[in-house]
Amino acid sequence: MGKLLMIQPEDEVRIENLKEKLGVRTKVDVVRAGLRLLEDETQRRDRISRWMRIAGLVSAHSAQVNSEFQRHSRLKRPS
After folding, report:
1. Cα separation of 58 and 17, whole Å?
2. CA distance 26 to 42
3. Which of 15, 45, 58, 69 is most buried, by the most CB atoms less than 10 A from its CB?
């Protein structure tokens, strides 16, 4: 058997409203949907944090490579 949760009356109303809007059968399904959303948001934030860290690590090298390409750009050559 699962563990019992103490739900405040105002939360009970919110859960019931979400249950109807989501078209789910039980209150547990509402809680599971909320947990899934929180997990997805947490993973998204972690992914963005990793991207930012990696972008910071490679930005100096990336700028160097861009400057090397710009020296040989056909756009800057006179016709």
Report:
1. 48
2. 25
3. 15
In this structure, the chain runs to a length of 79
pTM: 0.66
Dihedral over Cα of 72, 76, 77, 79: its sign: positive
Give residue-wise pLDDT tens across range 37-70.
Answer: 999 999 999 999 999 999 988 888 887 888 777 7
Q: How far is CA 41 from CA 3, 20, 22, 68, 75, in A?
A: 25, 23, 19, 39, 43
CB neighbours of 26 closer than 8 A, spacing ≥ 6? Answer: 19
pLDDT of 21 over the 80 cut: yes
